[in-house]
Structures are given as structure tokens and as C-alpha cells.
């Protein structure tokens, strides 16, 4: 009788298993994350996405690769991550604006791609050690455990941290390409996803060392030969690292107060991440773990002991062929920790940093379980044990999936996120401040002030906290206190445009127009990409009818943000100042002859400037009839009702503007102002 080829048999079994297991994996992860697609933008998303004018045009994509200042609206946060900026620009284009659904959809689709590649990589590695038709089940369990892990929800929900996802995806793709497609090695095609990963986020620069361990454990057995084979990856990665260092602007600030304290704390962080893989009970979007300052500290010694012990365990497991996948997974975990452990960052730990190391943990733990099952022969037995093992596996995955679902709920809004941080990380001044901000946005200045003052205990030299204390005291009508905090913010960060902008806005509200214009100009000079400062200047100059200077500011804004409607509107205001007709008369005629939403919006602005508030409202409503989702028109209505002291109508219009564009800062400012004035009026 003809004999069946065992290799072909295994391949057929793998294909059959994949047809069943991969759809189940995708559907399980999709169901778990089905409640996250409308979660809001958070924290660093604002300066890299909603306030970043560069991602608003696909024409800027080449610039992302040549100018790192395009990554963020804040100079101190500008680093070289062109792949991330490109992906964000594509999402902005597809969603026709900052539609959070499309940003989440993009991240999630890449997450699914990574999980499928992880499954394929794990099957390949498991089959090299112990060929079995059951390996696909252990591989899918590993990928599912990872895909449903609550800690990974911290990355999937945090849009700008797709950098962790895309860099991890690139490393997995590069390793799988090298391992499973040996014919491609001669052309070094496996290096393409590796380089793309490194251009997404620097932790992927560790790829050559992961590749080195893979080759040594599964292909060569000799470290010298393995090193020679991964030399192309090492040389290319070194070149990319040097290039990225040169491309990073000098304004970038890592943020660590002490590099020494940061680094000696990292082994303890590694232990915390290791425990969180099994018990993710302390997840927080912004932890309050501080740096440790002495090498003799008990926690520091515990951390170093753990890392040393895990390294020794990985080395011993690498000596036996059947335990090498465990050794490789543990090595992956340790190596993936290296980049964020060496380079000092503002926070000693972030839960989204677990995303990359946990690939190795999923592999190691799943293969350890597989070995235990294989040794007892349970995989081949029938009866209760054969049913119990899948049932237990599904129960474990269900528990983790429930945890991920709950973390998605935490990330729903700014208020839900920062409430969770305030509870779990009560010594985190930034977390307390951000929760206070959510209360201030609702007009609850008393509660906000309480959280700001608590934050001051932990971050006494935080300029943004001082700015928010100024805004909060302004809402409580404490002018002297408000100005003191604004000035303190400028003392702490004189080169930060944000402090100058908010001080300028406050000065203007107090009728100190000349000082406000000077501060707004400073903010604009320090950071031209902060368009709020330019808008404030143009508004003041329009009030003063200083059309020549307004034209200069508007044209500079349009060079940075071509087609910006606000700047174009201000330009149209002053366009007719040299004619016998007033700008208002010209705008009325233009709206009559060319009834577009933009022309009516400009007309409503001019009516507001002229003090014709009912006409301003009507012109804005005409714009809405032509363009129902015109957030700027609703904001004009809110501003007009404010001038008429009709606070309920102003609040309603501002809320509608924010419903259309949740990140419309001017509308949020108008909403907060209307709420505060309504309360002070006792209505």
C-alpha cells in the first residue's frame, strides 16, 4: 500500500485547523472589542491627531519622512515616526476629519493582522520542535490569549500608541518571513517589515537580537554562525538608529528627571509586567509608580534578581530542544523590554509598553502548557480530560476577554478614563489634574479646583497644572489668583506656547487687549503650528480693524494650513476695506450672489463683529441649511447667544457643535463660559 507523506499530512492538518481556528480567533477578538470603536481621543492623541494640522492633508506624507516636526503640535513631543503620521493622515482622509471611528478601525484591523501572523509564527516554531496536528490549537490559544489580554486594550484604545502595535507587527512579520520563507532570505526581503517597524517606533530596533536568538535556538545551534547570519539585520538597524537620532528635533524631551533612577527601576517594572501577564489587576492609563533612587533599595534588588533569574531560566531551557520555544519566548520578553529600559522616558512604566514583550510571554506559556499536555498524553486521550482541556482554555480566554471589554469601557471618555486613573493611581498629579479637567469642562469648578490642588501636592512644578488652576480660578471669578497661576506657568515653562496662549485669552477676557495681543504673538512665534494662537490674534486684530496686520497673520496661517476656513474667513472680512463698501456690505452681497455655506459663515462672523447678533444667528442658520454638519456655524450661534446673555441657547448650540466635532476647542471654550455665566447669574 502507498505510504502517506507525513509532511504533507501535517500541512493538510494545519490548513484544516486554520480554516476553523483563525475565523474563531478573529470573531472572538472582534466581539471583545466591539464596544471600543466610538471611544474618544485621549491625552497624546490631541497634540498628534486632533491638533496636528499636518495630518489633515495627504500632500504632507513626503514631509513626514523628512521633517519630524510634523509628528506633533507640541515641540517637546516631536519625534521621528513617519509611518505613524502617514497612517493617521490616511485615517483623517478616509474619515473626512477627526472621526474617531476610522482611527480605531484602522488600528483594530492591523491588530487582527498581527494576531494571524503570530498564529502562523507560533505554529511554525512549535512544528520545528515537535511536529503534531495539535500544534495549531496551542498556537491559536497563544494568539487568542494575547489578543484578548486586558493589558493590550491599553494599546488598542490609545490611538497614538498604535506605534507599539505597528512596530510589534513589523517585528512579527519580519521574523515569520525569515523563518517560514527561506527562499526570500537571499534577497533580504524579511528586512522590509523590520525597517517599517523601526520607522513606526524605536523599540523595534531590537529586532536583530530577537532574530539572533531565533537562529541560534532553532536553526544553527552555534551563536557565532547565528550572529553571522543576522549581520545584515544588525547593520541595517544600526543605520536606521543613527538616521532616526539625526532626524529627531532638538526640541524633543524624553522627560526623565534622572536617567540613573529611571534605569535602576526598570527591572522592577519588568517584574510588574511579568506578573500582569497572568494577573492584569492593576491596569492604569497613567500609573503613579515613581523612580527608585538607590541601587540598594529592596525593590531595586528584587527587580534585578528577577531579571537575572529569568535570564538564567531562559538559558537553561535553551539547552533542551523541546523547551526552546519557552526559552525563546522568555528571551523575547526580556529583549523587548530593553529599548524602553535604556532610554529614559518621562514615566518609568506605561501599560501600553507590555504590548511588545507579551508576544514572547504568550508563546512561552502556551508551549509550556502544551508540553505538559503532550507528556501526559492527554491530547490523544478521549473522555472527560479531552473535554476538560478545551473547556478550561475557553474559560481562561473568556475571563481575559471580559477584562478587555471592561478596559474598553474605561477608555470610553476622558471622564471615565481619568476617574479610573485617579482611583488606581492616586499619587499621579497629572492623572488628578486630567480628571479635574473633565469636571471643569462640565462647569463644576469647585470639584475641579479640589483635584487641581491635590495634584499640586505631587507635581508642584507642572506648568500645565498652573494653567488649569488659572482657568479654574477665572471660572470662580478670582482674578488675582487666576493671573498669579498664569504667570507661574510662564515662569516654569517660558518657551512653551500653551501658557502664553491661555494667558493671552484670559487677558483679552479682562479687556487688556494690547497685552493679550502681545502674549498671543509670543505663543504664535514659539509654535506656529498652534493655530489657536493665530486665531486669537486675528480675532483681536479684526476687532481693532487692523486689516494689514490681520492679513499678515492669516496668510502665514494659510501657508501652514492651506484652505483653513477660519483664516480665509478673516481675510474675506478685510478684503473690501479699500472699497467704498464696508466688508459687511460686501459679505452680504457675496452671500446673496454666491449662497454657499462658507460665505454665510463669514457673513455671520461679520454680523457678530458689528454687534448684530440676531443677524449673526440667522446667517449661521443659513450656513447650516446648506451644510447640516457645520460645527463652526453652530459655534457662531453659541457666541451670538452669549452676547445676548441667552445662556441656555448658547449651551445648546455649543453642545451641537461638539456633537459634530468633539475636539472643537473653541466650541468647548464657549460651552464652559456659558455654563459658568449661567451659574453666576443664578439661573
Account of the 3D structure:
The chain is mainly alpha-helical and 683 residues long. It folds into four domains: 40-410, no CATH class; 428-494, Tetratricopeptide repeat domain (Serine Threonine Protein Phosphatase 5, Tetratricopeptide repeat, Alpha Horseshoe); 501-574, Tetratricopeptide repeat domain (Serine Threonine Protein Phosphatase 5, Tetratricopeptide repeat, Alpha Horseshoe), CATH 1.25.40.10; 578-683, Tetratricopeptide repeat domain (Serine Threonine Protein Phosphatase 5, Tetratricopeptide repeat, Alpha Horseshoe). Helix content is 70%, strand content 0%. It has 33 helices and no strands. The protein has helices at 6-32, 44-50, 61-64, 82-94, 100-129, 135-147, 153-157, 162-180, 191-200, 207-220, 223-229, 231-247, 259-278, 298-317, 324-342, 357-376, 384-410, 414-424, 429-440, 445-458, 463-475, 479-492, 497-509, 513-526, 531-543, 547-560, 565-574, 583-593, 597-609, 613-626, 631-643, 647-660, 665-680. The protein starts with 5 loop residues before the first helix and ends with a helix. The model has no long low-confidence stretch (mean pLDDT 90).
Amino- and carboxy-terminal Cα gap: 94 Å
Tally of helical segments: 33
Question: How many discrete domains?
Answer: 4
Structural category: mainly alpha
Strand residues, percent: under 5%
Q: How helix-rich are the residues, as a percent range?
A: over 70%
CA radius of gyration is 29 Å
| Shape by Cα distribution | elongated
Largest sheet: none
Average pLDDT works out at 90
Count every beta strand, where a strand is a DSSP E run of 2 or more residues.
0
Uncertain segments of ≥5 residues (pLDDT<50)?
none
Amino acid at each position: 500500500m502507498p505510504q502517506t507523506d507525513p509532511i504533507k499530512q501535517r500541512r493538510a492538518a494545519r490548513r484544516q485547523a486554520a480554516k476553523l481556528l483563525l475565523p474563531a480567533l478573529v470573531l472572538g477578538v472582534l466581539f471583545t472589542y466591539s464596544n471600543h470603536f466610538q471611544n474618544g481621543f485621549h491625552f497624546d492623541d490631541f497634540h498628534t491627531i486632533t491638533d496636528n494640522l499636518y495630518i489633515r492633508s495627504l500632500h504632507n506624507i513626503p514631509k513626514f519622512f523628512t521633517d519630524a516636526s510634523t509628528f506633533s503640535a507640541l515641540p517637546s513631543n516631536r519625534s521621528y515616526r513617519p509611518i505613524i503620521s502617514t497612517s493617521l493622515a490616511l485615517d483623517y482622509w478616509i474619515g473626512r476629519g477627526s472621526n474617531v471611528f476610522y482611527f480605531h478601525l484602522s488600528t483594530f484591523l492591523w491588530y487582527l493582522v498581527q494576531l494571524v501572523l503570530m498564529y502562523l509564527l507560533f505554529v511554525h516554531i512549535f512544528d520545528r520542535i515537535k511536529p503534531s496536528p495539535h500544534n495549531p490549537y496551542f498556537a491559536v490559544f497563544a494568539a487568542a490569549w494575547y489578543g484578548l489580554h486586558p493589558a493590550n486594550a491599553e494599546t488598542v484604545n490609545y490611538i497614538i500608541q498604535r506605534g507599539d502595535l505597528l512596530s510589534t507587527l513589523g517585528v512579527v512579520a519580519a521574523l515569520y518571513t525569515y523563518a517560514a520563507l527561506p527562499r526570500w532570505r537571499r534577497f533580504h526581503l524579511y528586512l522590509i517589515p523590520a525597517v517599517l517597524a523601526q520607522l513606526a517606533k524605536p523599540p523595534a530596533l531590537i529586532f536583530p537580537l530577537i532574530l539572533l536568538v531565533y537562529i541560534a535556538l532553532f536553526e544553527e545551534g552555534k551563536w557565532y554562525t547565528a550572529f553571522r547570519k543576522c549581520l545584515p539585520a544588525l547593520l541595517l538597524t544600526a543605520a536606521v538608529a543613527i538616521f532616526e537620532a539625526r532626524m529627531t528635533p532638538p526640541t524633543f524631551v524624553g522627560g526623565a528627571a534622572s536617567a540613573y533612577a529611571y534605569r535602576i527601576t526598570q527591572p522592577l517594572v519588568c517584574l510588574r509586567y511579568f506578573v500582569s501577564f497572568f494577573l492584569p489587576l492593576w491596569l492604569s492609563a497613567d500609573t503613579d509608580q515613581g523612580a527608585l533612587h538607590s541601587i540598594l533599595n529592596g525593590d531595586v534588588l528584587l527587580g534585578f534578581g528577577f531579571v537575572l533569574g529569568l535570564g538564567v531560566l531562559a538559558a537553561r531551557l535553551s539547552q533542551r530542544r523541546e523547551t526552546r520555544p519557552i526559552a525563546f519566548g522568555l528571551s523575547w520578553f526580556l529583549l523587548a523590554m530593553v529599548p524602553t529600559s535604556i532610554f529614559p522616558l518621562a514615566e518609568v512604566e506605561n501599560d501600553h509598553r507590555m504590548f511588545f514583550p507579551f508576544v514572547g510571554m504568550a508563546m512561552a506559556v502556551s508551549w509550556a502548557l502544551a508540553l505538559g499536555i503532550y507528556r501526559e498524553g492527554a491530547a490523544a486521550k478521549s473522555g472527560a480530560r479531552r473535554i476538560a482541556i478545551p473547556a478550561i482554555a475557553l474559560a481562561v480566554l473568556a475571563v481575559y476577554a471580559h477584562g478587555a471589554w471592561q478596559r474598553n469601557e474605561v477608555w470610553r471618555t476622558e471622564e471615565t478614563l481619568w476617574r479610573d486613573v485617579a482611583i488606581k493611581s492616586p499619587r499621579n498629579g497629572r492623572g488628578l489634574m486630567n480628571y479635574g479637567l473633565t469636571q471643569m469642562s462640565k462647569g463644576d469648578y469647585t470639584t475641579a479646583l479640589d483635584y487641581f490642588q491635590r495634584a499640586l501636592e505631587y507635581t508642584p512644578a507642572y506648568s500645565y497644572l498652573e494653567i488649569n488652576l488659572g482657568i479654574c480660578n477665572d471660572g470662580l471669578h478670582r482674578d488675582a489668583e487666576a493671573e498669579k497661576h498664569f504667570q507661574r506657568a510662564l515662569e516654569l515653562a517660558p518657551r512653551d506656547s500653551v501658557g502664553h496662549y491661555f494667558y493671552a485669552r484670559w487677558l483679552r477676557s479682562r479687556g487688556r487687549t494690547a497685552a493679550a495681543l502681545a502674549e498671543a504673538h509670543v505663543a504664535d512665534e514659539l509654535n506656529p503650528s498652534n493655530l489657536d494662537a493665530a486665531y486669537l490674534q486675528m480675532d483681536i486684530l479684526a476687532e481693532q480693524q487692523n486689516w494689514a496686520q490681520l492679513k499678515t497673520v492669516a496668510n502665514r496661517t494659510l501657508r501652514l494650513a492651506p484652505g483653513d476656513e477660519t483664516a480665509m474667513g478673516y481675510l474675506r472680512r478685510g478684503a473690501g476695506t479699500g472699497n467704498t463698501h464696508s466688508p459687511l456690505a460686501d459679505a452680504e452681497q457675496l452671500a446673496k450672489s454666491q449662497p454657499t455655506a462658507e460665505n454665510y459663515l463669514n457673513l455671520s462672523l461679520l454680523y457678530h463683529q458689528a454687534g448684530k447678533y440676531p443677524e449673526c444667528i440667522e446667517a449661521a442658520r443659513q450656513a447650516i441649511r446648506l451644510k447640516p454638519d457645520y460645527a463652526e456655524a453652530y459655534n457662531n450661534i453659541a457666541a451670538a447667544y452669549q452676547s445676548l446673555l441667552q445662556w441656555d441657547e448658547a449651551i445648546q448650540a455649543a453642545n451641537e457643535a461638539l456633537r459634530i466635532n468633539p475636539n472643537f476647542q473653541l466650541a468647548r471654550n464657549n460651552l464652559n463660559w456659558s455654563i459658568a455665566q449661567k451659574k453666576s447669574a443664578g439661573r
